[in-house]
Amino acid sequence: MNEYDSNRIFDLTKKINYEPTKDLNEANCYILNTCHIREKATDKVYHDIGRLKKNFRNKPKPIVLIAGCVAQAEGNILLKNEKYIDAVLGPQSYHQINKTILKLEKKKSPINITEFDVIEKFDSLNSLKNTDNKVSSFLTIQEGCDKFCKFCVVPYTRGAEYSRSMKELVLETNQLVENGAKEIILLGQNVNAYNFEKSKLSDLILEISKIKDLKRIRYTTSHPKDFTRDLIDAHKNCEKLMPLIHLPVQSGSNKILEAMNRKHTVEEYLEILKKLIKVKPEIKFSSDFIIGYPGETNEDFKNTVKLLNQVGFINSYSFMFSPRPGTPAFDLPRLDHAEAKNRLIEFQLIAEDIKNSYRKKLINKTVNVLFENKMKTGDRYFGRDEHFNSVIVESDDNLVGTIRNVKIINGNQNTLYGEITSNLKQTNCAA
Ligand code: SAM
Ligand code: SF4
Hints:
The chain contains 13 helices and 19 strands. By secondary structure, the chain is of the alpha/beta class. It has three domains: 114 residues, 3-Layer(aba) Sandwich (Rossmann fold), CATH 3.40.50; 241 residues, tm_1862 like domain (pyruvate-formate lyase- activating enzyme, Alpha-Beta Horseshoe), CATH 3.80.30.20; 58 residues, CATH 2.40.50.140. Strands 15-16-17-19-18 form a five-stranded mixed beta barrel. The chain has a four-stranded parallel β-sheet with strand order 1-2-3-4, sandwiched between helices. A hairpin with a 3-residue loop joins strand 18 and strand 19. Helix 8 packs parallel to helix 9, helix 9 runs parallel beside helix 11 and helix 12 runs parallel beside helix 13. The two termini are 29 Å apart. The site of iron/sulfur cluster has 10 residues, from helix 6.
């Protein structure tokens, strides 16, 4: 979502004649778009500003803005501790960036804009053409969260759930497709909580799937509680909807899920996966896990490992519990750090094994790859298969923006290598 926000910030600042630069040393305005989900986020800001100060020691100071969730959560502290920062802008206030920059061009005095102006923000963004021109483009459809998991800062930094209008989203998708997008990744902190005047995520998917030159649709991140029947059926009815679902479960222990306020059990989670496999047998899953949550016993941990093995997630993102100030879990008695770390290492080794054996089975198989860009070295092209695996092939033809059948020859943990076997038939959706 920060990538989407950063692109929109570029679109906004173009209006006041600012252009993105690849060379940091050339910048006369420096914007750091931050994430606050786990520890060390604020340290990273101070670290980056330290580097910036060094680079600009003998040059005029650029305007320095901190955007995103660290700005939202720690705006005043940042302004107080680091005088090099001119302004902080929360994730729901970045539409005010031009006003802020123009003010700072005239006079540098600290500015803090951290209101939750989400309606005003999207009104401003809707009137602005999205210039992102990637083959695979992000589109924020929903922001904020009303779920209040006890460990999570999102409801405090991004605010309450808000869904953008279907009409605006279809318009923006059309813009992105006109710019060359073949794949759209619909984004939201709880993307499947999308609800605009009774239109749900499945309605939006079916609507944008009618855009002829749009070939693939993905969405992330979903919450199990909002995984309704219509969304499951969309996977049956829409071929453009890719068969990889990122569905965070966090823990395989019902006791811990309850303590986290996740609002679902392991059994309910597995039931969703079962229904999805029934409508689309080739569907695969990835997930997020928090290891070492307060109160997690060895037995709870073993249950999480059991779930990992049972589902065979093709990608697992696991994090050690990170106490976030202001969240209810911050004050809970913490697990011994070394014990939590050992569990995380054990978990990640098993997750890697599962991933590796899945990837081994792909060797000599043919997958459909959408090519996103030419690589810097040689005639090599980077793309992703339907399950979001990175694939690289060599080719004399320009493959960017095309979907091809690729036979996988070999691979490592991060990348599969293959060769083109043929062009691919076009996919369509049942309306
Ligand atoms: N809304 C999504 C859901 O309900 O699962 C997740 C969004 S959250 C921005 C992304 C991931 O960060 C979570 O799935 C969780 O695994 C991880 N995360 C969030 N807060 C955390 C914390 N305090 N400590 C460790 N990991 C955390
Ligand atoms: Fe955070 Fe997701 Fe829970 Fe919302 S549902 S509080 S975004 S982890």
